[in-house]
Amino acid sequence: MTKSNTRLFSIIAVLAIAAIGGLSAPALYAQAPSGAYQPKFKGDPAHSDSEAAALAYMRVVIRAQHRFQKQYSHYATSLAELVHSGSFTKRMVDPNRGDYTAGFKGKKDSFVLTMTPQHLDADHRSFYSEDDGKIHADEEKPASADSPVVK
User: Which 8-state DSSP code applies to residue 150?
Assistant: First the structure.
């Protein structure tokens, strides 16, 4: 390459990098402050990223249980039985789910699933669900069937 070609290539490279950086910079400034939760989808009931992960886990378990029940005419009695039912994976058998711990009690005709946070507060509510698929939440005590349903 000649000197002028090298200089021209350098200028084009700098302009391209600046243009790419210029396009992504406004997106960075448009983000909410780091402490504010950004909903993952329209109508997201979560109050934090930890809650979003806990609720997502619950939805996967509930769907897997309903699929399992449809296939075998009874619910799984352990999380291990749910592996490969729907999108439930072997890794999901571990009850330690980040800031939450999963609790599972299964019988052939019903099941109870709970998600208990390490620290209970407004951004880390406890969750409860049964075979009806409704998820209940409580920010003051362990959630139960009497707790309000998550919308």
Answer: P
Burial-class residue 142 by CB neighbours within 10 Å (0-12, 13-18, 19+): middle
Provide CB contacts within 8 A for 32, sequence distance 6+: 38
- 29 C-beta neighbours (distance < 10 Å), count: 6
User: Domain-by-domain residue ranges, the chain?
Assistant: 49-138
Whether the pLDDT of residue 14 is over 70: the answer is no
State pLDDT tens for residues 35-85: 789 999 999 999 999 999 999 999 999 999 999 999 999 999 999 999 999
pTM as predicted? 0.76
Q: Which residue is associated with the tokens 């619950």? A: 58
